[in-house]
Amino acid sequence: MNGFKAFKAQVPIAWSPRLFITLVRGIPGTRRLHRRTLEALNLTKCNRTVTRANCSSIRGMLNQVKRLIVIETEEMYNARKQNLANHKAVRPPVVVGHSPLIAASSSSS
Known about the structure:
Layout: H1 3-7, E1 18-23, H2 32-40, E2 49-53, H3 56-64, E3 69-73, H4 74-87, H5 102-108
Antiparallel strand pairs: 1-2, 1-3
């Protein structure tokens, strides 16, 4: 599922001066042109996100590698980060009570 489908119900899509670009597919096996475009975008590892200005030259680069990346606006990125933070439930600490062993204490005396 791409970023647009994942977040279109949560956040209204609006023009954003910044784009958040995440590499979601691996680089091995891709064309040399696509690898060089990803290097120019500074995307070298999977699941890494970079921020770029929303200009025509960047959008042209993103169009070349659109099957390898997810493009999010600032609102979409913030909503995804907020959902991840809410998903991590704060749990109470686990307290383990170590009671003395009855059989071990009686056999040693």
